[in-house]
Prior knowledge:
This protein has helices at residues 2-19, 21-38, 83-96, 126-130, 157-166, 181-195, 199-211, 222-225, 248-251, 257-267, 276-281, 345-358, and strands spanning 44-51, 54-61, 76-78, 254-256, 287-288, 294-296, 301-305, 308-316, 321-327, 332-338. By secondary structure, the chain is an alpha+beta fold. Strand 5 (287-288) and strand 6 form a beta hairpin.
Amino acid sequence: MKEGFAGLWLVSILFFFQYSPLTRNKEIADLLFQPLIDSKTHVGIVVGVAAENESNVYTYGKSGNPHNQALDGDTLFEIGSITKVFTAVLLAEMVQKQELTLTDPIDLFLPASVKVPRYGDKKITLLDLATHTSGLPVWPLGFKSENDQNPFGEFGMARMYQFLSGYKLRGEIGGKYAYSNLGYGLLGHILSLRAGRSYEALVVERICNPLHMASTRIQLPTEMLARLAQGHSEKGEGVANWDLPAFEGSGGLRSSVHDMQKFLEANLGLMETPLLPTLQATHLAHRRMNLPDTFMGLGWHITNEDGNEILWHSGATGGYTSFIALHKNPPLGVVVLSNSSNAITGVGFQFLAKMTAAGV
C-alpha cells in the first residue's frame, strides 16, 4: 500500500513538472527568444508572464552594463513608447477625478502665447492626442539634432511650443489614425501642467506608488542606475541612453520586468487596487485604427481576435525595444524588454499566441 502510494506520488510530481504552465511556458520562451541571442540580433532579453496562477521571469543573454550584472526581473530598460500607456492611465484618472474631460481642447491648458493648430474651426482635444488622431506628425518636422546618440536631448518645451505655433494640420482632426510621439509628449506635458507636478512625479504618485512599482522612473538614482542594462544598436554596439525632455509622456520611462508584471496584474484584475476602474477605462475602444480589427483605446492598441480582445503596445529607443500585451480571457499578460534596438514585437506576439493556444 505504501509503495503504491509512493509510486503514484512520484508519477503525479513528474506529471506536474512536465505539464505545468511554468515548464510549458519556459519551453515556449526558450524556443522563441534564445535564437535571437544565438544569432546575435539581440544582446539581452527579459520576459515576464502574468497570469492567474503564474508570475514568472525568463532571461536570455546579458545586460552588457559596466557592472556586468546578470539579467533578472529587476534589470532596468528604457521601455520607450510603452510609456504612452502610463500617460493614458494618468489621463483616465484625471477624468475620473473630474480634473478635466476627454473632450477638452488642448489650448485650454497651454500658455496663451502658444498658437495651437486647428483644422477649420475644429480644435485638437485630449482624446485626439490619446488616440493618435490629432493630425500632429510623429516627430517635429524639420528638427535636426547634432547628436545622433541622444537626438531629442536638447528639444525642450520651448521648441515644442515654437513648432506647434508654426505647424499647419494636413488632415481632419479626430479622423485618420496617425501615430504621433509628438502628440503623446504634448499630452504628458498638459497633464503635468494641469496637476502642477512634473510628469515623473505624477506617474510615481498616481500609478507607481499605488501599484508598488519602485523601479519605474525617468531619472535614475545611483542604485537604480547600476541595474540599467546597456543599450545596443542594431549592430550590437553600445549606445547612449535617450533624454526626452519634451517627450517624457511619449517614451521617457525606464522600468523592470517585475514592475511591468505588477502593471499587467493590475490591468488584468489579478491584484486588488483602487486603480482598477481607471485602468479598465483605458481598455475601452474610442477610434478605429488602420489595421484589421484594431482600435485605439486610451494608450492601448486593441485587436479583436476570435472574439477576444488583445491589448498591446510596443516601444523602442536608440538602444532598447519593448513589448507588452494582455489577453482578457483567460487573463494572461506578457512583457518583453530587450537592450537592443532590433525589433521584438513580432516575437512577443508569437509568445502570447503560443501560450494562449497551449492553455494557461
